[in-house]
Design goal:
This protein is an alpha+beta fold. The protein folds into four domains: 12-18 and 93-190, Reverse transcriptase/Diguanylate cyclase domain (Alpha-Beta Plaits, 2-Layer Sandwich), CATH 3.30.70; 20-90, MutS, DNA mismatch repair protein, domain I, CATH 3.40.1170.60; 193-247, DNA polymerase, domain 1, CATH 1.10.150; 294-468, Dna Ligase, domain 1 (2-Layer Sandwich), CATH 3.30.1490. The chain has 17 helices and 13 strands. The longest helix is centred in the middle third of the chain and has 21 residues, at 308-328. It is globular and about 65 Å long.
Length: 482
C-alpha cells in the first residue's frame, strides 16, 4: 500500500450540502419528499399573491421548469405555479449547519466554513493518518475518508451532500458540483486540465454570466478553449485576472490562495470563502507572502432596511468585523469599498483610497460618507457590503493604530475574540439588526459559527472594471444552492 502524496496531490475537499434548505424542510415535513419545493421570501401556504424576495433554495424537481436560486420569487411562481413555496426556518437551518460542522470537524484535522451549506476540508499530509489496509494509494485513502464523512452526514443528520476532491479549491468546487446529487468525485493531480476542458467556460469560479457571454462571442465556449489562449487574447474581457483564469483553466492553480491561514482552525474564503470564502468571496491575503485581494463581509436582509439608524448600525457591524479580520492577518488596507443594493435589485459600489489602516475607527467614517453619497433613492436597502483591499503587510506601528484612544480595552476585545470567536464580544453601536437573511464573509474564520440564516444572493464587486466585465468574486463567493 502506497500512502505517499505527490506534490499538489488531490487533498482539498469542497463539501456541499445538496439543496440544503429544502433538505431540512423535508426532514421536518416528510410529505415534501419528491415534490417541487421553493424556499424564499415570506411565502405562506395558501397565499395567492406573489411575495417579494428571491429564491434562496429550490428542489431538483422544480429546476426542470427553470427555477433557480437567486431568481425573484415572482418569476419562480410564474414558471412553477404548482410548486410548494415556503418562507423557510432560518434559525433551524443554522442549527443543522452546526451539526454538520461537528461531524466534519470530528473527522478532518483542518476545516473551513465557506457558507452555511458549504465546507472546505484540508487533508494535505494526512495520508498516513487515515490509511487503511487495502487502500491502493493516497488518493484512495482520502476518497474513502470523504465518502465516510458524507455517509455520516446522511446517517447521523439525514442530509444529502456532495464532495469534490482536487489539488486546489477552485477545482474541488467544480468537482463537487459535478458530483451532485449525493456523490463524491476525485480529480487526480495532473488530470485537472483534462477534466476541465469540455466544461462551459462559465463553470470556472469567478467567471460570471456577462463575462461568459463575451467570451462565447469570441468563440471561447469551453475551458479547453480558454486554456489554449494567452492572457492578452482575453484581457479585454477578463481584465487583470486574465492570467489567473488561464492558469486555472489549465489546471495550474499553484498561485491561488489555497493555504489555510496560520492561527485559523479552518482554512479560510473558500476565497472567497477563503482555503472562503464566500466563496471567501474574494481572494484574500496570502500568508505565504503576497497581499493581493481583499477582506469582505456583506449582509442580505429578509426585510429591507428603511431607517438610517439600522443602516449605520449594520455598517458599523460590518466595519468592525472586517477590520478585526485584517488585524488577525497582520495586514492594513488602502482602499475601502461600500456595496449597496436596493429592493429593486439595483446595486451600487463606491470605493475610496485611504491611508493604510486596520482600524474600524478610521474605516467607519469613510463608509458613512460613501453611504451618504451612494444613497440617492428612497427605496429600502436589501443588501449592504463592506470590503477593504489593496492590502499590505503591516508593521508594528500600523498594527498599534487601532489601539489609539483605549489600547487596553481594544486589545482585550481582540484577545477575547481570538479565543472565543468574533461574536463573543461586540460594540453596542454595531449590534446587527435581527432582520438579517444571509451573510457572506470574504474570509470564513475558523472560530466563527456558520451563518444562522440563509446565504445572501450577491457578492461584493471591488471595482467598476470587474463589474462591467461581468466577473464574479472567486470560489465560495459564487452563491448557488445545488
Amino acid at each position: 500500500m502506497t500512502v505517499e502524496a505527490p506534490l499538489r496531490a488531490a487533498r482539498i475537499v469542497c463539501l456541499d450540502l445538496d439543496t440544503f434548505f429544502v433538505s431540512v424542510e423535508r426532514l421536518l415535513d416528510p410529505s415534501l419528499v419528491g415534490k417541487p419545493v421553493v424556499v424564499g421570501g415570506s411565502w405562506k401556504r395558501g397565499q395567492r399573491e406573489r411575495p417579494r424576495g428571491v429564491v434562496t433554495a429550490c428542489s431538483y424537481e422544480v429546476r426542470e421548469f427553470g427555477v433557480r436560486s437567486g431568481m425573484p420569487l415572482a418569476t419562480a411562481t410564474r414558471l412553477a405555479p404548482h410548486a410548494i413555496f415556503l418562507s423557510g426556518r432560518h434559525g433551524t437551518y443554522g442549527g443543522y449547519a452546526k451539526r454538520v460542522r461537528a461531524v466534519i470537524e470530528a473527522r478532518c484535522p483542518r476545516t473551513q466554513v465557506a457558507s452555511i451549506d458549504e465546507f472546505y476540508l484540508d487533508f494535505r499530509g494526512c495520508e498516513r493518518l487515515f490509511a487503511r489496509p487495502g487502500d491502493a494509494d493516497g488518493d484512495a485513502t482520502i476518497e474513502r475518508t470523504v465518502r465516510a464523512i458524507t455517509a455520516a452526514i446522511r446517517d447521523e443528520i439525514g442530509l444529502p451532500s456532495s464532495a469534490g476532491i482536487a489539488s486546489s479549491k477552485p477545482i474541488a468546487k467544480i468537482a463537487s458540483g459535478m458530483a451532485k446529487p449525493a456523490g463524491v468525485l476525485l480529480v487526480p493531480a495532473g488530470k485537472e486540465r483534462e477534466m476541465l476542458a469540455p466544461l462551459p467556460v462559465g463553470k470556472y469560479p469567478g467567471i460570471g454570466p456577462v463575462a461568459q457571454k463575451k467570451l462565447e462571442a469570441l468563440g471561447i465556449r469551453t475551458l479547453g478553449h480558454l486554456a489554449a489562449l494567452e492572457p492578452d487574447d482575453v484581457k479585454q474581457v477578463l481584465g487583470s485576472r486574465a492570467s489567473m483564469f488561464l492558469r486555472g483553466a489549465r489546471g495550474n492553480t499553484e498561485s491561488d490562495d489555497d493555504e489555510p491561514e496560520d492561527g485559523d482552525e479552518q482554512p479560510s474564503r473558500a476565497d472567497g470563502d477563503h482555503l472562503g470564502r464566500d466563496r471567501p468571496a474574494f481572494r484574500e491575503h496570502d500568508p505565504r507572502g503576497s497581499t493581493v485581494g481583499s477582506i469582505s463581509n456583506e449582509r442580505t436582509f429578509f426585510a429591507a432596511l428603511e431607517d438610517e439608524d439600522s443602516v449605520l448600525q449594520m455598517l458599523s457591524s460590518l466595519a468592525e468585523r472586517v477590520c478585526w479580520r485584517a488585524r488577525k492577518r497582520g495586514v492594513v488596507a488602502r482602499t475601502v469599498t461600500l456595496k449597496l443594493r436596493y429592493t429593486d435589485f439595483q446595486t451600487l459600489s463606491r470605493s475610496r483610497t485611504i491611508p493604510a489602516t486596520c482600524s474600524e475607527r478610521e474605516v467607519l467614517p469613510v463608509l458613512r460618507e460613501l453611504y451618504t453619497a451612494a444613497r440617492t433613492r428612497s427605496l429600502g436597502i436589501r443588501l449592504l457590503g463592506v470590503a477593504v483591499s489593496k492590502l499590505e503587510l503591516a508593521d508594528a506601528s500600523q498594527l498599534e493604530l487601532f489601539h489609539r484612544g483605549d489600547p487596553e480595552l481594544l486589545g482585550s476585545l481582540d484577545d477575547i475574540r481570538e479565543r472565543f470567536g468574533f461574536e463573543a464580544v461586540r460594540f453596542a453601536g454595531s449590534r446587527a439588526p435581527r432582520r438579517v437573511e444571509g451573510r457572506r464573509d470574504g474570509v470564513f474564520d475558523g472560530d466563527e459559527e456558520p451563518a444562522q440564516t440563509p446565504r445572501g444572493d450577491a457578492q461584493i464587486v471591488l471595482d467598476d472594471e470587474w463589474r462591467e466585465r461581468g466577473l464574479e468574486p472567486t470560489e465560495s463567493s459564487v452563491i448557488t444552492d445545488e
